[in-house]
Every structure is written in C-alpha cells, then in structure tokens.
Amino acid sequence: MSSWNLAWRNLVRQKRRTLLMGSVVAFGFAAFALAGGFIAQSFEGLKEGTIRSIGDLQIVDKRAVARNEESTLEFGLPDAGRARSIAARDPAVAAVLPRIEFVGLATNGAKSVPYLGVGVDPQPEAAATLARELVVAGRYLSAADGEDVVLGTGLASALGVKTGDRITLMATTPDGSLNAVDGVVSGLVDVRIKELNDRYLAAGIGLVSRLLETSETVSKLVVFLRKGSDENRVARRLEQSLTAAGFPIAIRHWAELAVFYGQVKLLYIGIFGFVGAVLVVIVILSAAIVMTMSVTERTREIGTLRAIGTRPAGIQSMFLAEGLVLALTGCVAGGLVALIVRAILNASGIVLPPPPGATHGMPINVKFYPLAYFAGVAAMAGTMLVASWFPARRASRISIVDALTHV
Amino acid sequence: MQSTGRPLLLSARSVSKSYRLGAAIVPAIRDVTLEISPEEFVAIQGPSGSGKTTLLNVLGLLDLADAGEVRVEGKKAADLSENAKSDLRRDRFGFVFQTFNLIPVLSAEENVAYPVALAGKSAAESHARAVELLSAVGLGEKAAVRPDLLSGGQRQRVAIARALANRPAVVFADEPTANLDSKTADEILDLMREMGKEREVAFVFATHDPRVVARARRVVSLKDGRVESDTGTLSGGSTPPEESRRPPGGIPWRVRE
C-alpha cells in the first residue's frame, strides 16, 4: 500500500472536504491558467503589433544611440540606398524600410497645426507593416515621390481637412532653413493612440526629401526578419557587413525600442503576480485548515500507524502525499474548467475597454498557453505542499499514547 | 521477578512514569521491575488507574519511562532513536487495541498486509501473508471487506492477524475484549492463546477482564502503579489455579473455565 494509494483513499473517504478543497485548488488553477493565457495572448499581440510597427531591428547612426538629435537628420544615415541593399542581401531579412522622422507645421492656408511626420517608402511599408490597416478613410500613400499625405484623424480634424484636400507641409531642413511643400490628403489613419492621432502625418520619402532638401539620407532603416530567424545573429551579421562597407551604424533591437511594450509587460506581470500571490495565500490558508482538520480527525489512526511501526517520516509523507494528490486532481479539474471558460470567453466576442490613451478596445482572447498550465500545476503543488507541511509535521510528532487515546 | 530461565524478551527495571494533569503530576507506574520471556502469556491486571496501560505502553515502546530502564531483547529503549523504536515495533512487536484501531480505508487484507509492506516486503509477499493470517483467524472470506462492514469480533480478529503479520516476538493487547460480548470475547481470547502457542509469540495483556486472567499463564497485579503480585509463569501451559489468580484483597475473580 503506497502513500499515494493511501492518500487517495483518505481523500475519497472525506468526500465533502476533498470536494471543497479540490474546488479551491481547481478555481485557483483555472484562474492561473486563464490569466496566464490572456496575458500571454496580450503580450504576443502587443509584441506582434510593436514589431510590425517598428521592425525587428533598426539600423541607425551610432551617434543616435546615445544622443537625441537637435535638428532633423542630425544623425541621419547617408547613402541609405546602398546600406539598404546591403542589409537586404542577408537571407534572414524580409524587408528593409527607410524612414525619415521629422517635425513641422501643417497648414490648410488658414490654420497651422504641428505634426510628427514620418517619410516612408509606401509600397514595402504597406506590405510589411499595419500601415494600410490603420486607414479609416481614403487610401494609403501610393508612391514614394508622389504628393500623397496621410494624416492622423485628430490632426485632420484639427486642420479641418478631409481626403482629397490640399495642405502645405512646413519643416526646418537639416541646415536650419524653413521649407514647404504641398501635399494632398490621400487618407486618414487611426494609429490607436489618441495623442499620436492628433499629430501623426506620413508621406512618401520622396516628398519628405524634397521638404527637407536631403537626398539619400534617412533617420533609420527598419529591418523585418523572416519568421524563425535568430534576431541576435542577424543583428551581428548586419552590423559586420554594414560596418565593413563603411557605415558607422548601430543595430537596435525592437525590445529596447518598445518602451510601451516593456511597460505594459511589467504592469501585467505586476498585476498577475499580485493576483497570483493572493490566490496562493487563499489556497494555502484553506488547505492548511483542511489538512489540520484532517490530522485532528485522524489522530487515533496516526497513533495506530505509529504504533504498528510507521516512522514519523512515513506519517509526514502520507499527509504530504494527500496534499499533492489533492493538488494534482484539483489541477486536472481546474484545467478542464479553464478550457471550458476559455472556449466560452473566446466565443463571446467581448471587447475590453481601451486602455488609457488608446482609441480601440481589445477583443478578449485567451490563448491556450501550456506554460501557464505547467506553472499552475507547479504553483498549486508547491502551495499544497507548503500548506500540508506543518499539519503533516505535527501529525508525525504526535505522542503515540496521546494519539491512541484521542477522542 | 524473572518468570522463567529462558532468555529475556523484555525487561523493565525500576521503571516509573508520571503524567501531568493540569498543574498536578500524577504517578502512573512507580518503580516497576518486570521481565517477560519469549512465548509467555501474561496478564497485567489491576483496577482502573493502576497503571496497566501505562506499563504496557512503556514495554511496547509507545511511551518513554521517566526513570528506570526498559530493554527489548537486550537493547536499551532509552538509547534507541525514534526510527529504531518504530522499526522494532514493526518487526518484533504486535499490538491489539480495545477499539480494534483498524485503518478504515483499507480492506481486512490490506490492514494485515500493511505492516508487512511497511517492513519492505513485496506486494505479493504481503498479500500472501495477509491471506494466510486471515484464514488462520477464520476470516479468509472477509479479506476484501472494509472494517466498517465487519462485526466487533471480526475486527478484532483482523487486528490479531495484523499484530502477527511480521512474525513478532510479542503482542501487546490492551483490553482486547472490552468492546466485545462475552461469547466473542471468549473466542478471541482462545484464538490469541492458540495463535500464541502455534506461532511461538508472547502475549502481554493489560486487562481487568477475568476471562483474560483465567487464560493467562502468568498474572502480574498492579495497584497504585506498583507491582503488587506476580505469579510467575506457571508450568504445563494450563490455566493456573484459581488461588494464584486472585486479585490482592482476597476476593476471587469469577473466572470462566
């Protein structure tokens, strides 16, 4: 008769209590698995969205890593076309997109509004990023050197323009003079962040180069990798090949650039950790009470087992085994609950309210995240072991004579 | 008093044990000296509170003496670790309790097999030993039945089988008949005597049941925690003469022959 078998039978004997404690464990596990799945899904979505916006890697001038530009393209990458074609030769690279970041004023003739502008190569940009999907009115940019401009909905509203309207873009060139070009609003985009919507402007890189009076100089090259590529290895290769070609560049990884992603991740981990800690405390307290009751009720039995030769460690392991069996059966039940609730939630179409600063809510989507299930099992097993430890230890130290006369 | 010339199984020398009852210290046994030889059938008798159970617990290594020395097959109990005492109880002792004390979640067979498995024997050997012992106590057909479905007498038979499972040198029985009707009690006592003889096992009872005393080959009487009289083992294996089994004070027990 193994400790496990005995533990199982004792749990079956105390049906009501086992059911109660098993429910606590199952609830705790289900909460753990569901929260884990939801957070994993959120991280994955956020990561994918971030990478589709800023790329896996960015090639920038070395000076741009440590310092902020004081004027537009102060630390720009010259001869960007050549650098772009060198980077594109790497087999792991799916796309290399040039970007010029600049600021200025947009005017409709009567009113001027400041903007945060980005110059892009429209075709590859639309193919590699979510740019086209963000368009809520009109269409995305059509050609690198055309007059098309897309505006954030807030900026368009502030300017009082709609698609098809002409606007003038003004900006300071790298040498400090003021320049202006005309553009046509081809579309409006919702970039999902309200503050950015109020300032966002994108134009073809040709139009922006004309505005800034530059040629072949960009702020950065955004690199998208093929699926499954080793980001670090590709970064090393790109750095070597571009440095060898005379470019004083640095490679930046998406994770170090995605401040928002990092903050959200930390916030979620903090919330998840706190909720998890509360769950663990609830389970520990409930289990400790249940195990203590069990030890008290079975005091005479413990005395008998000790009398007939069970060592103290044997008694202790019997109760620890009960805790573990309860944890594992609770986890199985909790796993089933989690899968059912997950299916219901995912089918419900519930949209969570938008987070602060965002314009779109997120449809609830709970991923099946095996790591959360494994972690849940480990957490519940660990919790039950901790909760059972002291009652089990007490049981193993009971005076045999007192136990045999316990009523 | 040493009962026989055979090697000693258990010895207690000047053993005392007290319990704390609130603020008071209550002496349970005082300066008890006693020796038990293999295959003895000993009844420790005395009125309630005379220290019978305490003496049985100390001899059975369930409790520690406050003073004096207990030896089991020559080993000093005080020198044994908790695990060593557990192993000794498992391998050399058997216990039968007044309230049977079977493990409720185990069948009769599993209850008997439990100490065998505890001693590290295989499942097959534990099973075979349990089946053999249950047949010997007349419960071969109840092997799969759980204790709550057995009568008191049947439970005590299972307890006896369990006590004998690891072929012990001695079985301690604390009021084994107290919860049984007189017919069943007689049957159980006969069974114990028979099993003791057959399997060469000593039996030490704590009892105030005259039926037990009637069957004992040696009667140790306790009063106020002290040995008042000890008949020593009577030869021939028959029931000792009634005179020798009279409790101190001269009132004879009504013994059933």
Note down, in words, how this protein is organized.
The complex is a heterodimer of chains A (407) and B (257). Chain A is an alpha+beta fold and 407 residues long. Chain A folds into 2 domains: 3-50 and 261-404, no CATH class; 63-247, no CATH class. Chain A has 15 helices and 12 strands. Chain A has a 6-stranded mixed β-barrel with strand order 2-3-8-5-7-6, surrounded by 4 helices. A two-stranded antiparallel sheet of chain A has the order 11-12. In chain A, helix 2 (15-54) packs antiparallel against helix 11, helix 2 (15-54) packs antiparallel against helix 14 (370-397) and helix 13 runs antiparallel to helix 14. The radius of gyration of chain A is 31 Å and the shape is elongated. Chain A starts with a helix and ends with a helix. In chain A, 40% of the residues are buried. The model of chain A has no long low-confidence stretch (mean pLDDT 90). By secondary structure, chain B is an alpha/beta fold. Chain B has a domain at 10-98 and 169-245: Rossmann fold (3-Layer(aba) Sandwich), CATH 3.40.50.300. Chain B has helices at residues 52-59, 82-92, 108-118, 123-136, 152-163, 182-199, 210-215; strands spanning 10-21, 24-36, 41-45, 67-72, 75-76, 93-96, 170-174, 202-207, 218-223, 226-230. A 6-stranded mixed β-sheet of chain B has the order 6-7-8-3-9-10, sandwiched between helices. A 4-stranded antiparallel β-sheet of chain B has the order 2-1-4-5. In chain B, helix 3 (108-118) runs parallel beside helix 5 (152-163) and helix 4 (123-136) crosses helix 5 (152-163).
Overall pLDDT level of chain B: 87
Reported CATH architecture of the domain at 10-98 and 169-245 in chain B: 3-Layer(aba) Sandwich
What class, by secondary structure content of chain B? alpha/beta
Terminal-residue CA separation of chain B: 27 Å
Arithmetic mean pLDDT of chain A:
90
Low-pLDDT parts of chain B are 236-257
Strand content of chain B: 15-25%
Major sheet of chain B: size, sense and barrel closure? 6 strands, mixed
Tally of individual helices of chain A: 15
> For the report, how would you describe the main beta sheet of chain A?
6 strands, mixed, barrel
Largest interface, and how many residues on either side?
Answer: A-B, 24 and 31 residues
Strand content of chain A: 15-25%
- Residue share in helix of chain B: 25-40%
Order of SSEs of chain A: HHEHHEEHEEHEEHEHEHEHHHHEEHH
The dominant shape of chain A is: elongated
